[in-house]
Give the backbone structure.
Amino acid sequence: MCTPRKGPEGRADKYGRENRAGSDVASVSVSDRDSVFQVRIHGRGGQGVVTAAELLSVAAFLEGREAQAFPTFGSERTGAPVVAFCRIDDTVIRVREPISEPDAVIVQDPTLLHQVDLFGGLRDDGYVLLNTARTFGELGLGDYVGRFAAGRCMTVPATDIAREQLGRPLPNAALLGAFAALTHEVSMKSVAAAIYARFPGQTGGQNASAAEKAYALVAGAAQEISHA
């Protein structure tokens, strides 16, 4: 499990954010299910699923929030289905079990649609973010996503964006940018900062560019929906 760690009181942590003073466990409230935002990420080995969850947790932490990220334990071979989880809250998160009732589901590989129960337990007011250049209707998901409020479910060609920006089919960074635009749980600025902290130099710049492009696509689509 990846839980961003705080440094000494009053000092900047490794990600450059000043730590909250006096943030001992005894003096802060503890998260409950009604306040925590839970994200489940589905993909395949080699697609950076676990890294995506870790980066999302760091982005939230940079905004002064509590966060945790961890994967399921199973086959780690390339191409095998992988699931990772991220929880975000404004208070200490004590729960550690896998997320069975997510507020948001991110699908990094659309070929999992017929292999895994991707949307099991998703809340009625939840979000769906799917990596594909096709529409939900073309994927046979039109009726399913129709139960959600407009703007809660989005597709984004994250793999295509990654190939364009990185030269490799790694969709995780692009999907995090799209997630920021879709849910507003973290800002694009924090996503980019988390990416640069994990991948300095050119690699960080390429991943951040992929995230920013996906953010712009989803933000634009959301604006069109709101004006419809």
